[in-house]
Specification:
CATH class of the largest domain: Alpha Beta
Low-confidence stretches: none
Number of strands: 18
Radius of gyration: 24 Å
Mean pLDDT: 92
Number of domains: 2
Shape: elongated
Largest sheet: 9 strands, mixed
Structural class: alpha/beta
Number of helices: 11
CATH architecture of the largest domain: 3-Layer(aba) Sandwich
Strand content: 25-35%
CATH topology of the largest domain: Rossmann fold
Helix content: 25-40%
Amino acid sequence: MRLPTGISEFDRVLGGGLVAGSLVLIGGDPGIGKSTLLLQATDHFAKASGSVLYVSGEESARQIKLRGARMGVNASDLFILAETSLEKILTHAQRMQPKALVVDSIQTIFTSALESAPGSVSQVRETAGRLMMLAKGSGIPVFLVGHVTKDGSIAGPRVLEHLVDTVLYFEGDSGHPFRILRAVKNRFGSTNEIGVFEMKEGGLFEVKNPSELFLSERPLGVSGSVVVATLEGSRPLLVELQALVTASSLGVPRRTTIGVDHNRLSLLVAVLEKKVGLTLSGQDIFLNVAGGVKLNEPAADLGMVTAVASSHLDKTVDQHTLLLGEVGLAGEVRGITQPELRVKEAAKLGFSRCILPAGNLKQVKAKGMELIGVRSVEETLEKAF
C-alpha cells in the first residue's frame, strides 16, 4: 500500500508513495531545500490523509509559519512542534497518532537517557533507533532530515543509513535553480529514480519535462556543443555537453570538467590522439554539463569525444543530432542499455538524427528519426560533421 505525498516527483523517488511505518532519511547541503520540500509535501499529505506532526529542532514555530505562509502552506491538520527532547516528541506523537511525522533534523534531537551532547554519535544512534521503533510499532511513516559533512555524506554514524528504509539525497548547485532528489537506498523501490525540482520564490516546483528545461538555453550553430541522453532509473534525460579546446600557455595543459568524471575525459582525449590523430597534447580542455547535471554512465562517452573534436576542429554538430555510445580504448563504439527509451525521448523534443552504436540498431525503432550506426570514433566524427 502506498500513500501519495501529493508531489508526483517525490512519489517517484520513494517508489510510488509513502509506505506505512517506513523510516525515510533525507540529506543534502544547507539551504538546498530539504525543509522546504518536506513542508510542501506534508501540506499536501495533511489535506489528503489527515494530521501530520512536523517537529523542528532548528527553527521556531513562528519562523516555520512565516515560511509556510510565503509558500502557500495552509493545511489545518499540519501541526508544528518546536522541540528537541525526544521524550516530549514521542509523547506528542503517541497522543496525536499522526498520519506522518517529520523530524528536522535528527542531529538536533537528544534523549535524557544519555549524557552526551545532541548530534554526537551515541545520541544520533539512540534517537534514530527510538524513532524507528515508533514507526514500526505504530505504522506512522517518519521522515528524518540529516545534516551532511564537507564531502557530502550524511553526518553522524553510518549505522543511521543502515537503520532507515530509504535514504534520499538532495543534489544541486547553488548557482542553478534546479534540484535533483536521488534515492541511494530504498527497501520499497528502485534506487535509480530521480525527481527534478526547480527552486523559485514560492518554494520547490516539480519539473515534469526536465529534458526540455535543460536544453532551453542551448546555443545553436556553435562548435563544442552536443546533446546526449542519460538514463536515471526509468527516466531518460537529454542534456547538453559543452567543450572548449584552446592552446595552453602552461607546461602541463589543463583538463577541467564539471558534471563528468575528470579521469574519463583524460581517457577519451588519449583515444582521440591515438586513434583519430588529433593533436591535443598542447591544448587546455574544458568540459561542462549544462544545467548542473552529473553524468555517471558511459553512454555519454560518444558525446564527450564529439564535443571535444568539434571545439578543436571548430566544426559544428547539427542541432537536431543526438549522440549515444560508450567508447573503448581501441577507439571502438560499444552498445548501451535501453537505447530505444533514449531515442524516443529525443524524438519528442524534435531531434531528427541519432548517431548510436551499430550493435544497438536492431533494438531501436523510432518514427521520423534517422538512425546512424557507428563502430568507431573515427567513423562517428565523419558522420557528425
